[in-house]
Amino acid sequence: MALSLMPTAEVEKQFKRIHALASPSLDDLFVYFEPYNRRFGTRIMKKHPNFWSFIQLIQDEHLRFEHIIIQLASRVSGSKPSTNKTAFQRRFETLNI
User: Fold this and answer.
1) Which of 22, 86, 88, 97 has its CA 20 to 30 A from that of 79?
2) Could you state, in order of their start, the residue ranges of all structural domains in the chain?
3) pLDDT at 86
4) Which long-range contacts does 58-62 make (Cβ < 8 Å, 24+ apart)?
């Protein structure tokens, strides 16, 4: 975020500096959060949604998260895998044997 406030000529140099100082353990954290950020970005239909649609999106994500927690706590599996997914999985396993 601070890079956006720097002079244009300094951005690349400071980015490399920050990248060198960052802990390697942060890579796992970024890998963990990237799918969430991608999902969140695709759920917002407009570039700049109004505040209430943003609040609705947050509430929907909260409900989805609660639903997943309930499923995990009760050890219920997710939805039944599709036949296409099952067929693909069999072909994939055959190739990797």
Assistant:
1) 97
2) 1-55
3) 81
4) none
Residue-level pLDDT at 45: 67
- Assigned token pair, 58: 């947050």
CA dihedral 29, 35, 37, 40 (to 10 degrees): -150
Asked if residue 71 lies in contact with residue 85, where contact means CB atoms within 8 angstroms, the answer is no
Distance CA 67, CA 51 (A): 25
**pLDDT tens per residue, range 28-71:** 777 877 887 787 777 776 677 788 888 888 898 899 888 888 88
> How many CB atoms within 10 Å of residue 6?
13
AA letter at 76: V
CA distances from 54 to 38, 43, 48 (A): 15, 10, 9
pTM, two decimals, is 0.43
Q: How confident is the model at residue 97 (pLDDT cuts 50, 70, 90)?
A: low
